[in-house]
Amino acid sequence: MKKNLILPPEKAKEIAEKLNYRHNGLITVIVQEVLTNKILMVAFANKEAVEKTLTTGMMHYWSTERKKLWLKGETSGHYQFLQEMYIDCDADSILVKVHQVGVACHLGYKSCFFRKLINGNLQTIEEKPKS
């Protein structure tokens, strides 16, 4: 595993301030497994979450449901360690490549994208890992 991407606080703040939080103070975060390039999940981050992520090397998000900052894995142990970050052309979404510990999906799947539309029907295409 590569070393986690971690920045000093002043550099993290500088990067976070360059982002465009135009969607209710949030940016979209696309999360991809660094080794396989599999898309794991999509989440949201505010400026504080981006700064925390960049200064700790661990993914932090803004929970739109609970209306609070959360560290991915704080209750499940399924942490995400930041390896790479890409910022889109409008600076309103980021793609992060992470080292995923355990599963990313709260339903127990490796990816939140475990269903596929096949012949007009949703089908589960991924098995839950054995505990």
Alpha-carbon distance between the termini? 23 Å
Question: What's the average pLDDT?
Answer: 96
Total DSSP helices: 2
| CATH second-level architecture | Roll
Multimeric status of the protein = single chain
Can you offer a commentary on this structure?
This protein is α+β, with helices and mostly antiparallel strands. It has a single domain, classed as Ubiquitin-like (UB roll). It has helices spanning 9-17, 47-56; strands at residues 27-33, 39-45, 60-63, 68-71, 80-87, 93-100, 115-118, 121-124. The chain has a four-stranded mixed beta sheet with strand order 2-1-6-5, with helices on one face. The chain has a two-stranded antiparallel ribbon with strand order 3-4. Strands 7-8 form a two-stranded antiparallel sheet. Helix 1 (9-17) packs antiparallel against helix 2 (47-56). The longest helix is centred in the middle third of the chain and has 10 residues, at 47-56. The protein is globular, with a radius of gyration of 15 Å. The protein starts with 8 loop residues before the first helix and ends in a 7-residue tail after the last strand.
